[in-house]
Amino acid sequence: MVEYCKFFETVYTIPAKALRAPLRLRVSPPKPGQTQKKRCKGTSVLCNAQMSYRQIKQHCAVTAGSKALLKKAVDELGLSARTHDKILKVARTISDLEASADILPQHICEAIQYRRLDRDFF
After folding, report:
1. Is the pTM higher than 0.90?
2. The pLDDT of residue 73 is above 60
3. What architecture is domain 30-121?
4. Which of 92, 86, 93 is nearest to 115 (CA)?
């Protein structure tokens, strides 16, 4: 077994036999953007940022904990409905990068932090 660190956080364990397999046969996580392209295929949308309200409702599956966290953020920070949708789009992108089907609470937290930075500096 061979272990290596990717992005300084996640440790993947790969059997030594797999390392001898041709590179094209190894399983790798999808490239950022591939998931978005699959989701938006056949529409005029190219990325998560361009999703309409209907597409957000369709593609941004939020867990119960994420929904409660987002509601609390909207209430306490006084966020608008438009900002709510922007946070969902960013959280969808973050979850795509982590290859997660649902938007988890940590994705919502990170998206809110980005929104707060945007509000503070611009």
Report:
1. no
2. yes
3. Orthogonal Bundle (1.10)
4. 86
Confidence of residue 105 (pLDDT cuts 50, 70, 90): very high
Give residue 86's region: left, alpha or beta (phi > 0; psi -120 to 50): alpha
What contacts 3, CB < 8 A, 6 or more positions away?
11, 12, 13, 14
> What is the C-alpha to C-alpha distance for residues 50 and 39, in angstroms, rounded to an integer?
12
Ranges of each domain in the chain: 30-121
Between 50 and 27, where is the model more confident?
A: 50
State mean pLDDT over 88-109.
Answer: 90
Burial of residue 36 (number of CB atoms within 10 Å: 0-12, 13-18, 19+) = buried
Instruction: Judge whether 1 and 15 are in contact, CB under 8 Å.
Output: yes
**Bridge partners, 71 (sequence order):** none
